[in-house]
Structures are given as C-alpha cells and as structure tokens.
C-alpha cells in the first residue's frame, strides 16, 4: 500500500507543481553526462563501446546507490521516494507542451504550432503542414507518455526510489547518447540497449493500457501487425496500439537531422487533427488513473 500511496502522492505533486522551473536535477545531470561524454568519447566521437559502458556506470550507478540509501532513512525515507518519483514524472509538462500546439493549429497559426512542436520532437518541423504538426504532437503524447510517465511509475512500483532513479537517468542518457550516427554509434550503444531493456515490459503494459481505454480490437490488431515494422522495439508497440486506440493514422516519412526517414504507417483511420492531440493526452491521463487504481486495489488486497 505504501507503494501505491507513494505513486498517488507523486502524481498529485506533479499535477500541482509541474516540473521545477529552475535547476531541475535532470538538467544538472545532463551537464554531468556531457562532461563524461566529452572525456570518454572525445571531440571526434572515437570512443568504443567499453567507453560508453564506463561512462554510463559512472553517471548512473552512484546516484542510484544514493537514492537507495536515502530511501532507507528512518522517518523520511518514504517522502524521499515520493519526491524522487515526482522529479522523474512529466505528466503535467506533457500537457503544457502539447495543448498549446493544438490551440495554435485551431487558431490557424501554423508557424507557432511548428515552433512549439519543435520543442518536444527531434524531427525537423520547419516545413510541416498542419497534418504533419498534429501527427508529430500526437505521436509525442503517446510515446512520451510511456517514457516519462508510465515507465517511471512501473520502476517505482518494482524497485522503489533506486528503480525510478536508475530508469530515469538511463532514459536521459539514451536521449543524449543513443543516436545511430558517427559520433554515438559505438559510444552510445550501451545507453540505447539499456534503455531498450528497461522499457521492454513497461512499453507493452502501456500498449495494453491504450488498447483497453480506446478502440480495443483495432488497437490490438495494429499492435500485432504494425509494431514489428517500427525501428524501435518499444516505441513500435506503444505508438501502434495508441494509434489504433485513437482510430488515427500516424507514422509515415519524417525528416531527422536533414535526412528523410521512411517510417511505416501506424494505426488506422483518418490523419491526425488538433483534437487528436488532446485525445492522445486524455488516453495518457486515463491510463495513469487506471494504473493508480490498480496499484491501490493491489495494495489493499495485499494488506
């Protein structure tokens, strides 16, 4: 029951306060990761896989151990766990970033919509039309909901404070180092593979959650048929199931770092609209409510 109440308290803090505006611990961690990468990978990206493993261990393991020790403090350990989970969540910020995109599209301000969606996706958004912006934002809601919300809750439920810290830092390093390019192909291999491993189970639970809360039959069909075609083993199930649950078509070609990526189509139905951005957010929020309810019921039964 303490785990369920901890998740509930952390989600409440996130919805009430949002992300820290200044000196967010993940921003500070990002600076540390940059220094480690510059040291172990060098200016020309000549680091080997072993260098990436060493840098990952130095960045993640000491902080995970500190989180574990802090969670053991008598009297305040539970509150430490709640605060660490709160810092790992991004539920409110997901809406804060995506709702303005939907509003800009409704108001016919395509330039503002492109700019705002560019803050949260890695693709080139300068030449996107209205449908492209809506599609990118809807995909971001589904995928970031999995990475920044559900997976954090999962690892907190499994392993408490050290679990959520281990996951969130690993996910951050994947976002910084996990690129398939000349600089990070070797050095970032460990960060990418570890993040894939940590997200494997949560991503499939999220896909099932989306299916249960949406058009279940279409969602499961899209998950089964389309997810294997996606290049990411975890984003594929999440986005395919989410697109099927919403009854929209996502995916398709996109430009990343000046190169066109021929991504397969996901989902079924019409192209994305501004309303689908908000529907995707509703799917994430509804899923969080479902997970919290399941945790509370499970904790009550166990107690």
Automatic annotation (TrEMBL):
Keywords, in A-Z order: Cell membrane, Cobalamin biosynthesis, Membrane, Transmembrane, Transmembrane helix
A GO CC term attached to the entry: plasma membrane
Keyword Phosphoprotein: no
Transmembrane intervals: 65-89, 148-169, 283-301
Bilayer disposition of the protein: Multi-pass membrane protein
Pfam families linked: CobD_Cbib
GO MF term set: ABC-type vitamin B12 transporter activity; threonine-phosphate decarboxylase activity
Pathway(s) where this gene product acts: Cofactor biosynthesis; adenosylcobalamin biosynthesis
Compartment list: Cell membrane
GO process terms (BP): cobalamin biosynthetic process
Entry similarity comment: Belongs to the CobD/CbiB family.
Physiological role: Converts cobyric acid to cobinamide by the addition of aminopropanol on the F carboxylic group.
Listed PANTHER family: COBALAMIN BIOSYNTHESIS PROTEIN CBIB
Protein name: Cobalamin biosynthesis protein CobD
Species, as recorded: Stutzerimonas zhaodongensis
């Amino acid at each position: 029951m303490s785990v369920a109440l901890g998740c509930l308290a952390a989600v409440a803090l996130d919805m009430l306060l949002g992300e820290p505006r200044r000196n967010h611990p993940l921003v500070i961690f990002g600076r540390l990761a940059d220094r480690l990468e510059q040291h172990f990978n060098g200016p020309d990206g000549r680091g080997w896989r072993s260098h990436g493993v060493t840098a990952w261990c130095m960045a993640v393991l000491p902080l995970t151990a500190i989180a574990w020790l802090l969670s053991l403090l008598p009297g305040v350990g539970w509150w430490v766990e709640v605060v660490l989970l709160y810092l790992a969540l991004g539920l409110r910020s997901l809406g804060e970033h995506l709702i303005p995109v939907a509003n800009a599209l409704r108001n016919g301000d395509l330039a503002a919509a492109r700019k705002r969606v560019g803050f949260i996706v890695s693709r080139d958004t300068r030449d996107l039309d209205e449908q492209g912006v809506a599609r990118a934002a809807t995909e971001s809601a589904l995928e970031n909901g999995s990475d920044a919300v559900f997976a954090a809750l999962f690892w907190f439920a499994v392993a408490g404070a050290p679990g959520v810290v281990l996951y969130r830092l690993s996910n951050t390093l994947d976002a910084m180092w996990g690129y398939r390019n000349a600089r990070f192909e070797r050095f970032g291999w460990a960060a990418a593979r570890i993040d894939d491993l940590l997200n494997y189970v949560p991503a499939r639970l999220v896909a099932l959650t989306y299916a249960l809360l949406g058009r279940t039959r279409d969602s499961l069909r899209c998950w089964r048929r389309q997810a294997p075609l996606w290049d990411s083993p975890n984003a594929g199930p999440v986005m395919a199931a989410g697109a099927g649950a919403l009854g929209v078509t996502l995916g398709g070609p996109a430009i990343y770092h000046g190169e066109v990526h021929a991504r397969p189509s996901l989902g079924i139905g019409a192209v994305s609209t501004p309303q689908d951005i908000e529907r995707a957010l509703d799917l994430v929020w509804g899923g969080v409510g479902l997970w919290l309810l399941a945790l509370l019921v499970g904790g009550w039964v166990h107690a």
